[in-house]
Amino acid sequence: MAAPRQEIEALxxxxxxxxxxxxxxxxxxISDEEYDKLFDRLRVLEAAHPHLVTPDSPTQRIGDALNExxxxxxxPFPMLSLQxxxxxxxxxxxxxxxxxxxxxxxxxxxxxxKFDGISILLTYTDGMLTRAATRGxxxxxxxxxxxxxxxxxxxxxxxxxxxxxxxxKVFHVRGEVYMRxxxxxxxxxxxxxxxxxxxxxPRNTVAGSLKLLDPGMVARRPLxxxxxxxxxxxxxxxxxxxxxxxxxxxxxxxxxxxxVARTIDExxxxxxxxxxxxxxxxxxxxxxxxxxxxxxxxxKLGNTSRAPRWAIACKFSARQAVTVLNGVSFQIxxxxxxxxxxxxxxxxxxxxxxxxxxxxxxxxxxRLDLHYGDTVIxxxxxxxxxxxxRVVTENRxxxxxxxxxxxxxxxxQSALERLxxxxxxxxxxxxxxEAVKRQIEHFASRGALDISGMGFETINELVNHGIVTEPAxxxxxxxxxxxxxxxxxxxxxEKLIASIESAKAADLDxxxxxxxxxxxxxxxxxxxxxxxxxxxxxxxxxIAELESLPDVGPKVAQAIVEYFxxxxxxxxxxxxxxxxxxxxxxxxxVRGNILSGMTIVVTGTLTKYSREEIERLILAQGGKxxxxxxxxxxxxxxGEKAGSKLAKAESIxxxxxxxxxxxxxLQGKIGLDxxxx
Length: 677
Description:
By secondary structure, this protein is an alpha+beta fold. It has six domains: 2-60, Orthogonal Bundle (Helix Hairpins); 74-315, 2-Layer Sandwich (D-amino Acid Aminotransferase, Chain A, domain 1), CATH 3.30.470; 319-395, CATH 2.40.50.140; 433-503, DNA polymerase, domain 1, CATH 1.10.150; 508-579, 5' to 3' exonuclease, C-terminal subdomain (DNA polymerase, domain 1, Orthogonal Bundle); 599-674, Rossmann fold (3-Layer(aba) Sandwich). The chain starts with a helix and ends in an 11-residue tail after the last helix.
């Protein structure tokens, strides 16, 4: 029994990680098909071992987590997901289940394009857009009304196309926010011109845009909406296609590619025809959706806890192309990790010309058995970057040579190493030029010192010209240094110098994160900044003291101590001091133990503190900030417009404090014994 339990727990962790990457970060690592294989395996295991099913399993919920930056709102009805299919057999099996559920009655299907964007729910009241929410966890979503109101193609006040069309007093619309390909390319050109990193794809851009807290920034992004479901308040619609016509007549944007199929064969033809035509569109689709058209039949079929029984998403197979491996180059990350990259004969794939594809590591190279000159199958599924799926070995040249691991770093010729338990090769030279470039890029990034105008092209020139050799060197740059580089005028040089000067006063947690210590992300950097008086005190700490801090385990503690013991750090510290960079933390290392051993959740909109300030106070008093409510939560601090976390805390008897009460607790004016469950 131990083996199924362990596999189930591992699958849940992996699925949760991919859910965060897809929904919260908008940056998936795997294709939808690969995700569904993980999910299906978990579902099979749980069906075989029902006593191992838990309420927090991915199979027991619908969507993604909520974003703490927005108020949480309850949906008027569950926003369910769709069952996925990838081949004709899946579609035929779906049709068989539908016919069985309708007791032999044959349905018509509404066929629609599946836009590859972000799902939303719109509410109109008296003809006015009054609310827009993300799907969230299916029951509650983030209120993103102010952001959605900036999308010009979406009417804020309905203007029906027919004068006598009666507009329901309150109704709801499901839709998808997306970005056209040409708009995305234009937006990326602007990003590069401003010295920022280009974004990966339209869907990632949409996901990131909707999470912005500044509607003005959202308004500058070319977002669009397509509406695909009209939720009739009176329940008087006869068919889904009638609902689409109503949306169109109300003046809402709908797809012109939808059609009704009288038979499943016609629906399959629709799927196949759009798979062949998808590259002719100026927006991304990742399949088509088939829905039983009759509303009465939909009601008869009903829903599962996750998805309607009357609809299915028919995904397209991953785009494939045949090309030739011309060579292998290498990328070196900021921690020295060596990533092999396939250099390919240029080939069109998914509307773009692909010349390179990551090979991840040499385990993958060996799995593929790659040889120079091989004919390879290149694949791109959904949002995932192109990858080599297999080699056409029958086309292999007789004298071709295999791709093998380099013995030395291809950039600086230093020794390579592979750490125990890792597959990655690393360059042992901390001053490897390519690694230094990536270190500086990280140092200047938005989550770190946020130096505007310090793009990778500028960093590349600075390192190649020997002007900087490590991140701390940027604090000694002059306008004259920059004017010696291509592309800089006096105004842009002075603007970058001003941004660097401002970065000297950055909060300590940003500086710690910018150092690029292995395993130290933004959250751990905050913990460290709130726990030590300054950077020098942190650099002298022991593994034991680090392990006593929240969320700092042995591996992280070891990495921190190792980093601060290097010659590279001593050089950086001397330069940071000489440049006048602020090394002190906001708490000055004044720690107490009022909250020692306690787990505290913060929710809602705060007025007295910022989110970072309240987390700093919790950490400084020995507490551990947490993002989710459970029976292990000591108490919850609730601001205005608190949502699902407050409701859950109250339902399981977790004490709830206001900001004012939390302040009194820290001042000793109320005691912990006043917190009752």
